[in-house]
Amino acid sequence: MNMLHYVTESMAYMISGNMDSGSQHYHLEAAISKCFASEAAWWVCDEAIQIMGGMGFMKETGLERVMRDLRIFRIFEGTNDILRLFVALTGIQYAGAHLKELQNAFKNPTAHLGLIFEEASKRVVRKVGLSIPPAMDHLVHKDLTNSANLVAKSVDSFGQAVEMVLIKYGKSIVNEQFILNRLANATFDIYSSVVVLSRASQALKENSESAAHEKLLAEVWTSEAMERVPLHLKAISTGRTLDNFSKMSTI
């Protein structure tokens, strides 16, 4: 409950900071934050009722009304199911544009040798397992370097997974909702980890009273979230899972 509260609050701080700084492009962050916050609030309220036992149902505690009121938040201002598809489809547009650029380059290879060789080098390095994840350790406090490296590895894996589904499905990816949902879930875990690392780093930098506690929250959340990301990504490439998706679609 404590971690979900911390992550939700961190997302609110991040998007508010972006808006206050004049950013005009925060629709993805807003969609992720809305989904995460509404689902986290529901889980926390449900857990609070569970902790209180039978008393959780009593009007005097106020929880039964909170749970009723919370239910609508996963529906209005964009249902969470639709927002997940929005996040996934909007997020992969950049990768799609890059692949389109590469496709055009191969139509006139002599004029785009630099781009082609650069892409070929990346793929060869990745194929032999020598690819280097994007560096993030310089963006966080030194005490959170290990957590940042976990996120960096997930970002690299996520990028490869997105490229794989775009090559495989092309424009028809818009019809693959089971796959898009898994990509969105991976996005949520990566983004939530980034915002808590940012907030905890700031607390450590300022040596605030809550710094040590925030460091623990960030480390645990990031560790668990980065364990989930490979599971989400594996689901979009494993034959058995894809077969299940096909059967569920038929059902």
TrEMBL record:
Pfam family, one: Acyl-CoA_dh_1
SUPFAM superfamilies assigned: Acyl-CoA dehydrogenase C-terminal domain-like (SSF47203)
UniProt-listed InterPro entries: ACAD9/ACADV-like_C, Acyl-CoA_DH_CS, AcylCo_DH-like_C, AcylCo_DH/oxidase_C
Domain ACAD9/ACADV-like C-terminal residues, every copy: 143-251
Residues in Acyl-CoA dehydrogenase/oxidase C-terminal domain copies: 7-88
Alphabetized UniProt keyword annotations: Fatty acid metabolism, Flavoprotein, Lipid metabolism, Oxidoreductase, Transit peptide
Annotated GO MF terms: fatty-acyl-CoA binding; very-long-chain fatty acyl-CoA dehydrogenase activity
Pathway this chain belongs to: Lipid metabolism; mitochondrial fatty acid beta-oxidation
GO terms of biological process kind: fatty acid metabolic process
Taxonomic superkingdom: Eukaryota
Name of the protein described by the UniProt record: Very long-chain specific acyl-CoA dehydrogenase, mitochondrial
